[in-house]
Amino acid sequence: MDLNFRIATIQDLENLSILNKKLREDERIDNEMSDNEITKRMESFLTGKTYKVHILENEGKNIIGYCVLDVTREPMYLRQLFVKKIYRNHGYGKTILEKIMDEYNLNTIDLEVMEWNESAIKFYEHEGFKRRYIGMRLKKELL
After folding, report:
1. Pick from 119, 131, 130, 17: which is nearest to 68 by CA?
2. For residues 67 and 20, what is the distance between their CA atoms, to the nearest angstrom?
3. 127 closest CA partner among 103, 99, 105
4. Which residues pair with 51 in a beta bridge?
5. Strand 51-58 to 3-7 pairing
6. Which of 5, 61, 63, 65 could be a cystine partner for 99, CB 3.0 to 4.6 Å?
7. Using CA of residue 54, residue 106, residue 102, residue 109, what is the dihedral sign?
């Protein structure tokens, strides 16, 4: 199967917003965002200078997955990586990681994953990522 790994454009915004919504559902993200907020955030990723968004697609131009990379941090930071459910467990997540590492000539990359996202943790550890820190949050209700 021929794969195309490319920089996303503003024409991809609608599809990426839908995929980001699925990512948030799969991860059980604990901060609510409306569809409009998701679209605006994805648009900022596509049009700003901080992030590069890449898409992996098959020869039929069907999107397999995408990633959002913060290119301003050292080491670079993988903000999002998503593979559609129907394409999971076929090596596409690994392919995206390899393409990122090759494209940017990286030997180190950081990411964060929600503690309860066991499938993602298992995937990243399988790919060689090591746990480095514990993130914590205190959220108090306003009176």
Report:
1. 17
2. 10
3. 99
4. 70
5. antiparallel
6. 5
7. negative
N- to C-terminal Cα separation, the chain: 57
d(CA 52, CA 72): 10
Of 20, 127, 11, nearest to 61 (Cα)? 11
Give me the sign of the Cα torsion angle 143, 28, 98, 11.
negative
Tokens for 44, please give them. Answer: 């900022």
CA–CA separation, 35 and 81 (whole Å): 19
- Residue 106: count other Cβ atoms within 10 Å of its Cβ: 14
70 strand-pairing partners? 51, 77
- Distance, CA of 124 to CA of 103 (rounded, Å): 19
Rounded to the nearest 10°, the torsion over CA 5, 10, 15, 20 is: 90
Question: For each of the chain's 143 residues, which pLDDT tens digit applies?
Answer: 799 999 999 999 999 999 999 989 888 877 788 889 999 999 999 999 999 999 999 998 999 999 999 999 999 999 999 999 999 999 999 999 999 999 999 999 999 998 888 999 999 999 999 999 888 878 888 76
Q: 């920089």: which residue's tokens?
A: 7
